[in-house]
Amino acid sequence: MEPIANSETLWLKVLRDMAFSDKPRVVFQAGSLHLDYMLDRLSREEHEDLIGAGMFARYSMAQATSLAKTACELGKEVEFTFVIDDQGMKQESSSHDPHRVRNAFYKGHSGANAELWGFHRYTLTQEGFAEKDVIRHDHGKPGRRDCLYFSELVLRAQGDQTIENGCARAYVKYAGLVTDDKTHLVSFVPAACRHAVADIALDQHLRGISASHVFLNTETREHRGVKVPSGFFLGPDVGYHKD
């Protein structure tokens, strides 16, 4: 895994991979958030505000949409995917049943006329993309056969159960659903998932995949006037992984 010096070198690394790849299709995975965070902002104006989404989500979405526009200029077919961390949802009261809340959220973002959650929709449309450019996930449940969001819980259940690490199992399943021999995957992943994704999923189960993986901190917070905070590219699990 290579270190990341700054945003410019990272952008150029991924651009190089896309440009020199013989794959006509590029799939982006970015903007991952925890479902608790998203539910907490469903009724607030701030769910469309870039400052409210956290540095990892904002940065990865900005990078992905910028790279996607360039990929289009290179004549590539471009699609986006959104994987939601719905592990360990909080249960505030007896009326806050995680299963029912999760099911309602995914149903609300399924169907031909479904729209993305505010932050994701706002960021995509600002760059000329829309729901038509998003790959959907069949959760295998009524009303959730064509969801705009991939559920990590569902991916873990759908994946190869011989892979003991749940995060790795989910990622292997995800990659199998969205890639083929004509696809280059560009994936922005939280640094906390580096071991499961890089060491297990990529190195042991997804050999031969055409992909660029970026592992980034999720703990840093943006300060007004500071585009990328100090320490964002630092850490033992932060880096760039080319396959």
| Sheet having the most strands | 5 strands, mixed
Number of domains: 1
Q: Please, how many helices?
A: 8
Mean of pLDDT: 87
Radius of gyration using CA atoms only: 17 Å
- Strand-pairing-aware structural class: alpha/beta
Residue share in helices? 25-40%
What is the strand arrangement across the widest sheet? 2-1-5-6-7
Unreliable residue runs: 43-50
Give the overall shape, derived from the CA principal axes: globular
Q: Report how far apart the termini are.
A: 10 Å
The count of β-strands is: 7
Order of helices and strands: HEHHEEHHEHHEHEE
Beta strand %: 5-15%
Q: Care to describe what's here?
A:
- With 243 residues, this protein is an alpha/beta fold.
- The chain has one domain (7-242).
- It is built from eight helices and seven strands.
- It has helices at 7-20, 35-40, 55-73, 98-108, 118-126, 152-158, 166-178, 194-205; strands at residues 25-29, 77-81, 83-84, 150-151, 183-190, 211-216, 239-242.
- The strands form two sheets. A five-stranded mixed sheet has the order 2-1-5-6-7, sandwiched between helices. A two-stranded parallel ribbon has the order 3-4.
- Helix 8 (194-205) links the parallel strand 5 (183-190) and strand 6.
- Helix 1 (7-20) runs parallel beside helix 3 (55-73), helix 6 crosses helix 7 and helix 7 (166-178) crosses helix 8 (194-205).
- The longest helix has 19 residues, at 55-73.
- It is globular.
